[in-house]
What does this fold into?
Amino acid sequence: MSYPHNPSQQYPHPRPGGGYEPPTGYGPPPGYAAAPAYFPPGYYQPFSPWPPPASWGLRAVALILDSFISLLIFAVIFVPGIFFSIEIFDAEGKSMDETPEMAVAMLVLILVGVAASFSYFWLTHARSGQPLGKKLMGIKVISLRTGMPPSLGASALRQFIRMMLGLLGWLGSLLNYLWPLWDEPNRQAIHDKAASTRVVKVRGVAETPIQPYNY
It folds into this structure.
């Protein structure tokens, strides 16, 4: 659409508090939410259509709860499997220290337990963005591109990076978990940045969808 011929109304006007506003007389039609302020290319735009980032404290509590659940999943698979393997080898009259089958059985149980723990975070994040711990804390993981829970691929990458940082030792995990304290504006951990996700607060946040409108 063309602007009036008055030169003062041809371009967006700077606002006293920062940002720009559309020419006088132009605005969203009835029933539409006000569109965000127009910002020229390169200008910092603080507007975001997603809920606010979750606090570090909520994320920490949710992580503790979910880590306990994933550890419980691992234990439910590993511990009974070990006892079952011991019973089998004892029945066959084999010593656990003298047979390689026991070592293989332990390795398989560890891998299955780790895969189950991985899947707890992977599948719940991809399905709803909320493992049980995050759900209890009223926060969730969303994609920065869509605002929806991350895809299966992004969720798997997110969890994989988190595990790899953990394998680097306590320093890798500590740096990853403290990163949201100084990251702006999305408060992302390192594994969030790798998967283009963010953790947002959803409890107590009103859902106000923004209707698209172009001037």
The beta strands are 13-14, 20-21, 139-143, 197-201. Confidence is low (pLDDT under 50) at residues 1-11, 35-47, 208-215. The chain has six helices and four strands. Helices lie at 56-91, 100-127, 132-137, 152-167, 170-178, 190-195.
